[in-house]
Design goal:
heterodimer; A: alpha+beta; 4-stranded mixed beta sheet; 4-stranded antiparallel beta sheet; 14% strand; globular; B: alpha+beta
Chain lengths: 423, 322
């Protein structure tokens, strides 16, 4: 793959490292910098998104985008060790987001693994140049955890597919130009065998998108209605009816992307929770023995989470750890969110549930508490992650599945309407 | 592992703490009763803080396995906080005189060599080495919930030791005691990790083999999720203990914090795993003959010794100024 280049054509590794170091020092902020620590706006804030795209554009111009991606798709075609050098140098920095993150972390490797030549040449250069963001149209009102149970249909019509259905919880779709869309192309076979993955452009006739208002009052996600959306046959990634295999690959890349995020906080593990300490002082609860337990527990859970991903890092990179160990790491990090959210509410007390709008932390703890509900649901619920760890890591047997071998048409669904969010 | 080579000791890799941690973990898998923690805590103290003469007198025999050693630290209150100690080690002509009692001393009645921590007349922490057959030493074995752990109460009724028996700065042994406590915690956690690993293996195996309602009980989500919690507790404990051991080995200024973080997490995790193991095993795990209770007893013992998770959390927060 990348071994075509002769050894003497490869850039000097030290030189590469020093250039990377200089670039990052010039263009990126460190994790422990004041700007990063004081940033309270959500990552999908337009300014933050714009800054992110600008940064990744510069990364591409400096020659650090797509380090291992073959040159015919716009990459540098270098061996993996150069990617490792870049990752090492980038460790202390909080890299701005590349759109929703899906394009770089999921779509790019997915297309390299399962895309056609045309798809790779069409899309990968644009991703590397930070000209596009991608969304994922996966979950539906009636299918979240059970992703293989999606009901959006894609019916063949000549050299097109006609897509009809509804999708929910699509991060960043409102600023994306493309979406991966999982749809059903065969209703007469068991659910896993009748799925196809498509590329859907945004906007496109028949596609209606609306922001989803979440319990925190914010809107990080969208819902989509696909009403006779037409896409050409060459929008299919992988083969027709082969979408489940492509989905599993996609989930693997997503897990890897999220996993590398949790692995960056090694040294941070021993850092005490300064936010909480400040709150304890402000709330006048210094010396309260119960508060001491809560604060220390947040510190401990954070440290254990960081220590565990550091401890497993070597095995993960060497590929000797279970490919599903990422689910275990996710359980650790979501637990931190929950423990921290409960702690802040306990510390804040009545002041956490009612406030004057001109207070400095007005509503902050309530929002943090509500937002923690997303960590145990998004990217696979706690219960699903536990099933994955139990079955794929510990080897415990699966529960019998009623719908596994039934034609999709015959699978029982809830008779109650689940689409409260639809008009 | 922590005794210098010249006295008959020596580590495998040159990093004695890490080597010892591996041994402790392996011993933990079998809930081995060998006095790994006790002997090493005392040996470490003598090796680090004892005079050359003291080291020569005691370390070779300890390293050769001729005599176990024990650390007399906690007292009747059960507190492992050095601030709560009241056993008197007072300066007398020619040496020190000990007056008072110690309790919850691991391997206290098997040890020929006792490291004793107390306070002098000015309240300063002082440590001395005492032979268990010295006049005035009264040892009373206690009954331990943990079958693998022997524990004793040790009373000192005017026992005297020569001045050379001192370990660390007389009246100012605080730093030595802190280091010894860190070592005890790291070894305890390592043992717990090993034990948890064995308990988990046994439990998951049972969940795969025991059938009910026509299928393995591990296929039921409630059982499966308990197993997953046990797994999480194990890998988290393994990682946090490794971090604490490394910090201690390298003399990291954060080593004390790391040790408390490890003890607080592992203490809770091992105990919880014990409860889950009983649940998964059902009735058979409630019988005397089955191994489950060996582990759950061991977990509770470790939880209580050298500071409970609650105590360590409180200590961590105090360290943050709250």
């Amino acid at each position: 793959m990348n071994d075509e280049r002769q050894a003497d054509e490869l850039p000097d590794e030290t030189d590469f490292r020093l250039r990377a170091r200089a670039f990052l020092a010039e263009n990126a902020l460190r994790h422990d910098s004041d700007e990063v620590k004081s940033e309270t706006r959500h990552r999908y804030h337009p300014e933050i998104m714009a800054r992110g795209f600008a940064f990744h554009r510069k990364v591409w111009e400096a020659g650090f985008a797509g380090i291992t991606v073959p040159t015919e798709y716009g990459g540098k075609g270098l061996p993996g060790r150069y990617e490792a050098i870049w990752r090492e140098e980038a460790g202390p920095y909080e890299l701005p987001p590349h759109g929703s993150g899906a394009a770089l972390g999921i779509v790019l490797p997915l297309l390299l693994a399962h895309g056609t030549e045309e798809q790779k040449r069409e899309h990968i250069p644009k991703i590397l140049r930070a000209e596009v963001s991608w969304a994922q149209f996966l979950s539906e009102p009636a299918a979240g955890s059970d992703m293989a149970g999606v009901r959006t249909t894609a019916i063949r019509d000549g050299d097109e597919f006609v897509i009809n259905g509804a999708k929910v919880w699509s991060s960043g779709a409102h600023f994306s130009q493309y979406a991966l869309c999982l749809a059903r192309t065969n209703l007469d076979v068991p659910k896993h065998r009748g799925l196809t993955m498509f590329v859907v452009p945004i906007p496109t006739p028949g596609l209606q998108m609306r922001p989803t208002l979440q319990i925190t009052g914010g809107s990080e996600f969208n819902e989509e209605f696909l009403d006779d959306v037409r896409v050409p046959v060459d929008s299919v990634i992988g083969d027709i009816n082969d979408g489940w295999r492509v989905s599993l690959a996609m989930l693997g890349f997503e897990r890897r992307m999220l996993g590398s995020g949790t692995m960056s906080g090694g040294a941070a593990g021993a850092t005490p929770p300064s936010e909480l300490i400040e709150l304890v002082r402000k709330a006048g609860r210094v010396g309260d023995p119960i508060i001491r337990q809560l604060v220390a527990d947040v510190w401990i859970q954070t440290a254990v989470t960081a220590d565990t991903s550091a401890f497993l890092r070597a095995a993960i990179h060497a590929g000797t750890a279970s490919p599903h160990i990422g689910s275990a790491l996710k359980l650790f990090s979501e637990n931190v969110s929950v423990v921290k959210a409960r702690a802040v509410m306990s510390i804040a007390g009545a002041g956490g549930v009612a406030w004057s709008d001109d207070e400095s932390d007005a509503g902050r703890w309530a929002t943090m508490f509500l937002h923690a509900r997303a960590s145990t649901l998004g990217g696979g619920t706690t219960e699903i992650q536990r099933n994955i760890v139990g079955e794929r890591v510990l080897g415990l047997p699966r529960e019998p599945q009623v719908d596994r071998d039934m034609p999709f048409r015959d699978i029982p669904f809830s008779s109650k309407s689940t689409s409260r969010i639809a008009p | 592992m922590l005794v210098p080579e010249q006295y008959g000791g020596g580590s495998v890799t040159g990093e004695g703490i890490l080597d010892l941690v591996e041994i402790a973990e392996e011993a933990g898998r079998f809930i081995h009763a060998a006095p790994v923690l006790s002997t090493n805590a005392a040996a470490y103290a003598i090796a680090q803080y004892g005079s050359p003469e003291l080291r020569q007198e005691f370390l070779p025999a300890i390293a050769a396995g001729e005599t176990p050693a024990a650390w007399c630290f906690a007292e009747d209150s059960g507190s492992f906080d050095a601030d709560d100690l009241s056993l008197r080690i007072r300066r007398v002509s020619g040496g020190f005189e000990l007056q008072g009692s110690k309790r919850f001393v691991q391997d206290g009645h098997c040890a020929g060599v006792l490291l004793v921590t107390g306070r002098d007349d000015d309240g300063g922490l002082t440590q001395v080495v005492v032979r268990n057959d010295a006049p005035g030493v009264v040892v009373e074995p206690l009954t331990s919930m943990d079958f693998s752990r022997r524990v004793a109460a040790v009373r000192f009724e005017g026992t005297t030791v020569p001045v050379e028996a001192v370990v660390g700065m007389p009246g100012a042994a605080g730093p030595a005691v802190a280091q010894q406590l860190m070592l005890a915690l790291v070894l305890q956690c390592a043992d717990s990790v090993g034990a948890m690993g064995a308990l988990n293996d046994m439990t998951f195996e049972y969940a795969k083999e025991r059938f009910a309602y026509g299928r393995p009980i591990g296929s039921f989500q409630a059982i499966k999720h308990k197993c997953v919690e046990m797994f999480m507790g194990f890998i988290g404990s393994q990682a946090v203990t490794a971090a604490a051991a490394k910090a201690f080995q390298t003399g990291d200024p954060d080593a004390g914090v790391r040790a408390s973080i490890a003890k607080a997490y592992v203490g809770d995790a091992f105990s919880r795993n014990g409860e889950h193991a009983h649940q998964v095993h059902g009735g058979i795990g409630y019988t005397w003959e089955h191994d489950t209770h060996l582990y759950s007893r061991h977990a509770k013992f470790h939880e209580a010794m050298f500071g409970s998770p609650h105590w360590h959390r409180d200590r961590l927060s105090r360290g943050l100024g709250i």
